[in-house]
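Weekly sync, protein design subgroup
Attendees: M.S., D.O., the rotation student, P.L. (late)

Item 1: inverse folding check
M.S. brought a backbone from last month's batch and wanted to see whether the design step gives back something sensible before we order anything. D.O. pointed out we never logged the input encoding, so this time it goes straight into the notes. Structure tokens as presented (276 positions):
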């Protein structure tokens, strides 16, 4: 499969019988809790002029700081992090996106058994990325889309810029395994894959036994999930050719209506200062 294709049959991926043709992504989220957008659909959503800047974003994944919090001792994950608040008007047709001061990323152990309970301070998103023409339309249009599924007046958004590499033979996109993020909705945007096998996405019903599996290969294609209904994970990546660099780049956006996830007692986070 080339890097310009979507997974075979992606338009009709479902937990059971294929969904009807022509359903909107909003209706797919309502009916089954997940859906996929091709890069072409993303470009149409954010507008041609904004879409033209997407290519300029891809090189910004090449020099991300190392994730110093991995409990398995791995060196395979690099990342940056940022937080935003999106204020939507009553009709949901317009919005304001506010980039808030840098803050720690935190999840309870109920959602992340491996890295939950830690205040994790990551380097902020680069101004160059946030300043690109595609950034605000992408984040805001996804916020509007999710608000059509679950009406809200504002979203608290966290943006995670990830590179997973296979320099040591294997890289783990989700070392915590199948999980939820503790938010309302999640968007996983594939920025690129290089010289790897693996990295298969797996999505499961929260209250059932059914799941689907596929591999995102098309840059700027997006997996959308209702985090209150879906568990998800990605399988490890391994190099195809040990002589070349091997990596998988993603941008993960989480949308939560009831504020950012924060520890009840920040001072009790025993690992909050363990950055090395």
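Designed sequence read out in the meeting:
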């Amino acid at each position: 499969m080339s890097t310009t294709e979507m997974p075979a049959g992606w338009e009709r991926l479902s937990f059971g019988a294929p969904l009807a043709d022509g359903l909107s992504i909003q209706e797919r989220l309502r009916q089954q809790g997940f859906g996929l957008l091709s890069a072409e659909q993303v470009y149409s959503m954010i507008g041609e002029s904004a879409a033209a800047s997407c290519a300029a974003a891809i090189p910004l994944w090449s020099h991300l700081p190392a994730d110093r919090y991995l409990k398995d001792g791995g060196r395979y994950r690099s990342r940056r992090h940022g937080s935003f608040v999106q204020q939507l008007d009553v009709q949901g047709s317009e919005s304001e996106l506010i980039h808030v001061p840098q803050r720690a990323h935190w999840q309870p152990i109920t959602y992340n058994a491996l890295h939950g309970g830690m205040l994790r301070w990551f380097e902020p998103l680069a101004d160059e990325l946030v300043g690109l023409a595609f950034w605000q339309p992408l984040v805001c249009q996804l916020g509007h889309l999710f608000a059509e599924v679950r009406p809200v007046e504002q979203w608290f958004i966290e943006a995670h810029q990830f590179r997973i590499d296979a320099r040591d033979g294997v890289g783990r996109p989700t070392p915590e395994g199948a999980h939820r993020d503790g938010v309302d909705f999640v968007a996983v945007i594939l920025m690129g894959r290089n010289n790897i096998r693996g990295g298969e996405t797996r999505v499961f019903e929260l209250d059932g036994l059914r799941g689907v599996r596929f591999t995102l290969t098309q840059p700027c294609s997006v997996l959308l999930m209702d985090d209150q209904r879906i568990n998800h994970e990605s399988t490890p990546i391994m190099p195809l050719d040990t002589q070349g660099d091997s990596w998988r780049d993603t941008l993960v956006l989480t949308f939560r209506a009831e504020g950012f996830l924060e520890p009840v007692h920040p001072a009790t986070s025993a690992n909050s200062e363990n950055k090395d």
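Discussion: The domain at 25-259 is CATH 2.60.120.620 (Jelly Rolls). DSSP finds six helices and twelve strands in the chain.
Action: P.L. to compare against the previous round before Friday.
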